[in-house]
Amino acid sequence: DLLKQCGEYDPFDTFKDYYSKVPQSNFLDKTLYVDQKTWLQDNILVKVDRSSMANSMEVRSPFLDYRVVEYVARLRNRYKLDGIKQKVILKSSMKSFLQKEIINRKKSGFNSPTNKIGQGQIITKNSSGLFSNKFKLQGDREDITYKSFSFAVLGRWLDMHDHYMSTG
Question: At 56, is the pLDDT very low, low, confident or very high (cuts 50, 70, 90)?
Answer without folding.
Answer: very high
